[in-house]
Amino acid sequence: MRTLVNSLRLIAVIAAIAAVVGQWLASSEVAGYSPWNFFGYFTIQSNIIVAVAFAVTLVVAAQRKRAQLGVSLLRGAATVYIATTGIVYNTLLSDVVAADTVPWSNELLHRVIPAYVVLDWLLFSDRSRLLFRHIWWFVLYPVVWSVVVLIRGATDGWVPYPFLDPAQGYGIVTIYCIGIAVSIALLGVLVVGMSRLRLVKL
After folding, report:
1. What is the rounded distance in angstroms from the CA atom of residue 28 to the CA atom of residue 23?
2. Pseudo-torsion of CA 181, 182, 188, 194, nearest 10°?
3. Distance of CA 173 to the CA centre of its chain
4. Per-residue pLDDT tens for 12-46?
5. Residue 202 falls within a domain, yes or no?
6. Cα gap 154→49, rounded to integer Å
7. Which of 46, 47, 36 is CA-nearest to residue 141?
8. How do residues 42-97 score in pLDDT, each as one tens digit?
9. Looking at the 3D structure of the chain, how many domains does it have?
10. For a tag on the chain, would you pick the N or C end, based on fewer CB atoms within 10 A?
11. Is 98 exposed, middle or buried (CB count within 10 Å of its CB: 0-12, 13-18, 19+)?
């Protein structure tokens, strides 16, 4: 079972990297391409975080060490972020398709990888039990990301997603930001709760 799980995680790492690179290659050919903009998307960042988290998990597994709290926190955070990506995309952005969108990459980044990562966290027991105070660590990165995006929107006019566009009014943008922050906190509660489960022992 452990070999199967590690193989699935390796596939997830490869899929996340391939999807990011595939979309990056397509986006880099579009006039006005900026790496700051491309890697500014929460979708791209959350998938990179997933790849890093699973890669670290695989290294620890190869060393035959027990799950460490730091590694579990990283995986838990990755689960929260990629679940947020999946939920936001499929509820707010699924109808927004850019001209340079790569269909197979888009499907992996927004549906397949989020679904697998959540199932991986739910099912497999090789993780430490997290505490509810750890949710603050999960919230920190999205808050920093939101602040940077809002600053960029107010200065150079670039925003990664339509619902963060200051042109619609900062009141609306604030409501969306609060909603996403609450969703992330609630997802954090679920991730912490799931860390107590031992459905498939490894």
Report:
1. 8
2. -150
3. 21
4. 999 999 999 999 999 998 878 889 999 999 999 99
5. no
6. 27
7. 46
8. 999 999 999 999 999 999 988 876 668 999 999 999 999 999 999 989 988 777 77
9. 1
10. N
11. exposed
